[in-house]
């Protein structure tokens, strides 16, 4: 499948990015090359092979479900671009 | 080796404990070295000179503490490891002013052990790159030739250690980002087994691949750092709950009798540059002289590793980097008028091209209709790659091969062709998919380029001790590279 600049714009939208026309064209060519390279995997028969998502196949360790205060609110909001000291502030949504 | 800053971490430790040197003297020597070399090498994003000197004075007042294994040792850490109250940029504009309020687990361990963190090392943005040219702040240069790249993404750490700005540095390795720059700059770099070092406080790129590891000028120094940062962390669900081995004790081996060394034939095939092959073959011959038995082994799925890796790493990156939304931390565009605008404009201005490329390709391979063909397929191939390694390691104790197919390339040479840059990771990448440990050791200079060549030793799960014991003996039998020619 060929990757057009329009397709690139569509993927950008899904990724919450916006690209100017020039970058869309540049990425289209590069994506085409990269995805073509990735398609080499299709030459390999993997039927019946269980996917491996993590090299550590230990079960997720569980802890007691008990609320615990680990962080201070001041610390959590300390890097926010906009805050009133209590909450993160964003433009009005509703 | 007449300068203080050129000494090994181990030597400095002895001198500090014997009170022949003060921490202030050692820190000052490193800061002066940074002042001298940094204009040309550009290894660091920030230097914490005042804090380091203040800490040094307090430590000198208190006197040496032998129970702290890194007491008074100046180190740097890659700038994607959170440092409390010190900017952590990940080499990105989007985190230009980010000041974490906690230390990464590994950084906290260094501090507890008495280390003095003097700087944050440059890197490819969010660890995405193989040359440290993708940093939003500066491109690091190779101390052996300032016209060449240091490798990446931990190129800042590698160049800093090679230029003797500090006695060690922590890097991270997602697809070779410790071992490849160590090879290109001529220092020792270890990627531990996945799960040995906690990833908490390391800004994530590919969560199932990332590991933190030490970069140093000697094998012993490396073992000393790993000893400190290895260990269980209950706040990282992938951190393995098992005691770390005694890595320093592993350095006492006197020969390699009884050790089987596997040579994966795919690592010694076409595509490997002649000068790299010669230097690595000479090192393998030394292993044989030391008593090791050489065995040829196969890793039949190696040719699929790069495609597999980039699908998985990009998929994980697209998910991990979704957190940068201009709301809770990081850059927010002032042109945004609504919430969606904040996300889109902040991310588009805050991320560099390579990061945007990987997020988008990751989004693509995870999107409806493509998930099975790319992501699931890659995860299946990943299992086959891991099984190859486990099978090969049934026949031998370690595997050896080159860390990089070439020595350091010219600055700017590969920046316009991302795929060509990805292909440079051919010998390092499959190990991260398998989760196994690997170490790059300098074994000489390339006959044509006069640039460092690294031999990669790959081991069994949680068997870093064997890697250190073999590397340490080989290091002893190898002529030291000497002072980097570019400085």
Automatic annotation (TrEMBL), chain A:
<dbReference type="InterPro" id="IPR036113">
    <property type="entry name" value="Asp/Glu-ADT_sf_sub_c"/>
</dbReference>
<keyword id="KW-0436">Ligase</keyword>
<dbReference type="GO" id="GO:0006450">
    <property type="term" value="P:regulation of translational fidelity"/>
</dbReference>
<protein>
    <recommendedName>
        <fullName>Aspartyl/glutamyl-tRNA(Asn/Gln) amidotransferase subunit C</fullName>
        <ecNumber>6.3.5.-</ecNumber>
    </recommendedName>
</protein>
<dbReference type="GO" id="GO:0070681">
    <property type="term" value="P:glutaminyl-tRNAGln biosynthesis via transamidation"/>
</dbReference>
<dbReference type="GO" id="GO:0050567">
    <property type="term" value="F:glutaminyl-tRNA synthase (glutamine-hydrolyzing) activity"/>
</dbReference>
<dbReference type="GO" id="GO:0005524">
    <property type="term" value="F:ATP binding"/>
</dbReference>
<keyword id="KW-0067">ATP-binding</keyword>
<dbReference type="GO" id="GO:0006412">
    <property type="term" value="P:translation"/>
</dbReference>
<keyword id="KW-0808">Transferase</keyword>
<dbReference type="GO" id="GO:0016740">
    <property type="term" value="F:transferase activity"/>
</dbReference>
<dbReference type="GO" id="GO:0050566">
    <property type="term" value="F:asparaginyl-tRNA synthase (glutamine-hydrolyzing) activity"/>
</dbReference>
<keyword id="KW-0648">Protein biosynthesis</keyword>
<comment type="function">
    <text>Allows the formation of correctly charged Asn-tRNA(Asn) or Gln-tRNA(Gln) through the transamidation of misacylated Asp-tRNA(Asn) or Glu-tRNA(Gln) in organisms which lack either or both of asparaginyl-tRNA or glutaminyl-tRNA synthetases. The reaction takes place in the presence of glutamine and ATP through an activated phospho-Asp-tRNA(Asn) or phospho-Glu-tRNA(Gln).</text>
</comment>
<dbReference type="Pfam" id="PF02686">
    <property type="entry name" value="GatC"/>
</dbReference>
<comment type="subunit">
    <text>Heterotrimer of A, B and C subunits.</text>
</comment>
<feature type="region of interest" description="Disordered">
    <location>
        <begin position="48"/>
        <end position="76"/>
    </location>
</feature>
<feature type="compositionally biased region" description="Basic and acidic residues">
    <location>
        <begin position="62"/>
        <end position="76"/>
    </location>
</feature>
<keyword id="KW-0547">Nucleotide-binding</keyword>
<comment type="similarity">
    <text>Belongs to the GatC family.</text>
</comment>
<dbReference type="InterPro" id="IPR003837">
    <property type="entry name" value="GatC"/>
</dbReference>
UniProtKB/TrEMBL annotation, chain B:
<dbReference type="InterPro" id="IPR023631">
    <property type="entry name" value="Amidase_dom"/>
</dbReference>
<dbReference type="GO" id="GO:0006412">
    <property type="term" value="P:translation"/>
</dbReference>
<keyword id="KW-0547">Nucleotide-binding</keyword>
<comment type="subunit">
    <text>Heterotrimer of A, B and C subunits.</text>
</comment>
<feature type="active site" description="Acyl-ester intermediate">
    <location>
        <position position="177"/>
    </location>
</feature>
<comment type="similarity">
    <text>Belongs to the amidase family. GatA subfamily.</text>
</comment>
<keyword id="KW-0436">Ligase</keyword>
<protein>
    <recommendedName>
        <fullName>Glutamyl-tRNA(Gln) amidotransferase subunit A</fullName>
        <ecNumber>6.3.5.7</ecNumber>
    </recommendedName>
</protein>
<feature type="active site" description="Charge relay system">
    <location>
        <position position="153"/>
    </location>
</feature>
<dbReference type="GO" id="GO:0005524">
    <property type="term" value="F:ATP binding"/>
</dbReference>
<dbReference type="GO" id="GO:0050567">
    <property type="term" value="F:glutaminyl-tRNA synthase (glutamine-hydrolyzing) activity"/>
</dbReference>
<dbReference type="GO" id="GO:0030956">
    <property type="term" value="C:glutamyl-tRNA(Gln) amidotransferase complex"/>
</dbReference>
<feature type="domain" description="Amidase">
    <location>
        <begin position="25"/>
        <end position="467"/>
    </location>
</feature>
<feature type="active site" description="Charge relay system">
    <location>
        <position position="78"/>
    </location>
</feature>
<keyword id="KW-0067">ATP-binding</keyword>
<dbReference type="InterPro" id="IPR036928">
    <property type="entry name" value="AS_sf"/>
</dbReference>
<dbReference type="GO" id="GO:0016740">
    <property type="term" value="F:transferase activity"/>
</dbReference>
<comment type="function">
    <text>Allows the formation of correctly charged Gln-tRNA(Gln) through the transamidation of misacylated Glu-tRNA(Gln) in organisms which lack glutaminyl-tRNA synthetase. The reaction takes place in the presence of glutamine and ATP through an activated gamma-phospho-Glu-tRNA(Gln).</text>
</comment>
<dbReference type="InterPro" id="IPR004412">
    <property type="entry name" value="GatA"/>
</dbReference>
<dbReference type="Pfam" id="PF01425">
    <property type="entry name" value="Amidase"/>
</dbReference>
<keyword id="KW-0808">Transferase</keyword>
<dbReference type="InterPro" id="IPR000120">
    <property type="entry name" value="Amidase"/>
</dbReference>
């Amino acid at each position: 499948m060929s990757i057009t600049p329009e397709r690139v714009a569509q993927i950008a939208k899904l990724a919450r990015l916006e690209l100017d026309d020039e970058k869309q064209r540049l990425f289209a060519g590069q994506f085409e090359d990269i995805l073509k390279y990735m398609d080499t995997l299709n030459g390999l028969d993997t039927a019946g092979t269980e996917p491996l998502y993590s090299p550590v196949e230990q079960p997720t360790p569980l802890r007691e479900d008990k609320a615990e205060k680990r962080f201070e609110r001041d610390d959590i909001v300390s890097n926010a671009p906009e805050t009133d000291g209590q909450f993160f502030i964003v433009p009005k949504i509703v | 080796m007449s300068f203080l800053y050129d000494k090994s971490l181990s030597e400095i430790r002895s001198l500090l404990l014997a009170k022949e040197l003060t921490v202030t003297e050692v820190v000052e020597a490193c800061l002066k070295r940074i002042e001298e070399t940094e204009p040309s090498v550009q290894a660091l994003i920030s230097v914490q000179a005042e804090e380091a000197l203040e800490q040094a004075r307090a430590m000198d007042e208190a006197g040496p503490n032998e129970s702290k294994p890194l007491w008074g040792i100046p180190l740097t850490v890659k700038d994607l490891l959170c440092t409390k109250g010190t900017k952590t940029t990940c080499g990105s504009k989007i985190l230009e002013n980010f000041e974490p309020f906690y230390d990464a687990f590994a950084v906290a361990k260094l501090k507890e052990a008495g280390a003095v963190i003097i700087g944050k090392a440059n890197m490819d943005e969010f660890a995405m790159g193989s040359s440290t040219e993708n940093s939003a702040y500066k491109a690091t240069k190779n101390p052996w030739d300032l016209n060449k790249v240091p490798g990446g993404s931990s190129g800042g750490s590698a160049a800093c250690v090679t230029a003797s700005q500090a006695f060690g540095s922590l890097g991270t390795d997602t697809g070779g980002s410790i071992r490849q720059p160590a090879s290109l700059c001529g220092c020792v770099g270890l990627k531990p087994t996945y799960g040995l070092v906690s990833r908490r406080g390391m800004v994530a790129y590919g969560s199932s691949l990332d590991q933190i590891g030490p970069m140093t000028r000697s094998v012993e120094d490396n073992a000393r750092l790993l000893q400190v940062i290895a260990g269980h962390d209950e706040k990282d669900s992938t951190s393995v709950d098992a005691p770390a081995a005694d890595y320093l004790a592993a350095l006492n081996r006197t020969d390699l009798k009884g050790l089987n060394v596997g040579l994966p034939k795919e690592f010694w095939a076409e595509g490997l540059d002649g000068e790299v092959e010669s230097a690595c073959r000479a090192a393998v011959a030394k292993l044989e002289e030391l008593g090791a038995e050489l065995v040829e082994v196969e890793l039949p799925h190696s040719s699929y590793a790069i495609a597999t890796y980039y699908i998985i790493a990009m998929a994980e990156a697209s998910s991990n980097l979704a957190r940068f939304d201009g709301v809770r931390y990081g850059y927010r565009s002032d042109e945004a008028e609504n919430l969606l605008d904040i996300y889109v404009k902040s991310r588009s201005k805050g991320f560099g091209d390579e990061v945007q490329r990987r997020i988008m390709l990751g989004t693509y391979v995870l999107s409806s209709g493509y998930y099975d063909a790319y992501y699931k397929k890659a995860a299946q191939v990943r299992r086959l790659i891991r099984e190859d390694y486990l099978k090969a390691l049934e026949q031998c104790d370690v595997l050896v091969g080159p860390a990089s197919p070439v020595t350091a390339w010219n600055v700017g040479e590969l920046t316009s062709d991302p795929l060509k840059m990805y292909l440079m990771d051919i010998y390092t990448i499959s190990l991260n998919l398998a989760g196994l440990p690997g170490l790059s050791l300098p074994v000489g200079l390339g006959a044509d380029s006069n640039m460092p060549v690294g031999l990669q030793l790959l081991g069994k799960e949680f068997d870093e001790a064997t890697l250190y014991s073999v590397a340490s003996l080989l290091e002893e039998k190898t002529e030291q590279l000497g002072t980097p020619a570019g400085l």
